[in-house]
Each structure stands twice: as structure tokens, then as C-alpha cells.
UniProtKB/TrEMBL annotation:
UniProt lineage: Bacteria, Bacillati, Actinomycetota, Actinomycetes, Pseudonocardiales
GO MF, one annotated term: oxidoreductase activity
Protein name: NADPH:quinone reductase and related Zn-dependent oxidoreductase
Pfam families, alphabetized: ADH_zinc_N_2
TM regions (residue ranges): none
Amino acid sequence: MPEVISAEHAVAAAVPASMAVVLVRTANVVEGESVLVEAASGAIGGYLARLAKERGARVVATAGAGKPVPDADEVLDHNDPDWRQEVPEGIDVLFESVGGPRAAELTTKLVPRGRILAYGLLSGEFPTYSVAALAGRGLTLIGFGGLDAYAEDVAAARAEALGLVAGGTLTPVLDRTYPLADVAAAHARVESREGVGKVVLIP
């Protein structure tokens, strides 16, 4: 771990930043593309937005009303039930973390041969896609929901991710720290979804 990173920041960044590095690399985001990042005020989403921006992409992001996404060119309120209708057309890469039955609506916003990387289920339900709709437009769907397929990649990316944090490219998203004795309060904070970033327990 680079010495310039505190233990709390390293804990907050290690896994989500490593996952973001692998996701962006797998998506092969290139300069000039348009990227949609769902839940971009969260840990992984925020890192995805930053890394895509570093590669020269235009970033469209979703977040709760009032939650900041510093690296987004456009932010949509994902608490609005019709936010998907506001997504501009011409999206090259979709980082899908919400899931649910309405996820497929976004396929019409992607360019032919666009890429979808499904890595989260914030809605609690898997996204449902029509194979015909994907194949008909040449869309690529990559599942990233479980770590089994990418565990080695994520582990290998950890040093790079922490190096990006140490160098200032990525900023750890730390909401609050709690002593281990206050684990119940920490859990309540996470469940409230009021914070932005990771909640870290201090032994």
C-alpha cells in the first residue's frame, strides 16, 4: 500500500477502485466515446466516471438528487422514474448497476455495437434483456455480477488502483468512519443511503 494513503482511504478505495479499473479496461473505453454510468455518486460509479473521463470520454451519469458527480458532463436524477427517457442517444458504453425489468429500455440509447457491462443489482432484480434486441443491433453484454470470473483481474488491478489514488487521479470516497463497537450505527448509516461513499469500521 502506498505510504501516502491512510489506512481508512485504502480500505475505502481498494475493492471498488480495482473493480472500476477492470470494468473500464474490459469495456475498452476510448477517447470521444459517450459513457453512461449508473449510480455514479457511489464508490464504483464515481471511479468509473473518473476513469472514463481520463480516457477522453463524455460521461453521462445518474445519481440521487443533489449528490455530486464531479466528472460527469451530464447528471440525471435516478430517483425520477422516467430518467431513462432523458438519457441522450448515442451511448457507446453502459455501466449497468441498477438492474430490474426496465434496464432493457436503455438498449435503444446505445449505438450499434455498443457495450453493456452489468455489474450491480441496486434494484434487487436482474436486468432482463431480449437476445433478439441485443443481437439485432450488435450489442455486447458482459456480466460482472459475481467476482468468480474476474477475481484474479480485480486482485491484479489493486496495486494499479491504489497507485491512481496515491497519484491523485482517483479520490477515495469515504463517507464516515466508526469504531468497531459502533457497528450497528455503521450498518444503519449504510442502510439509510444518505451518505456518499464507503463507511469504514476502525478496529
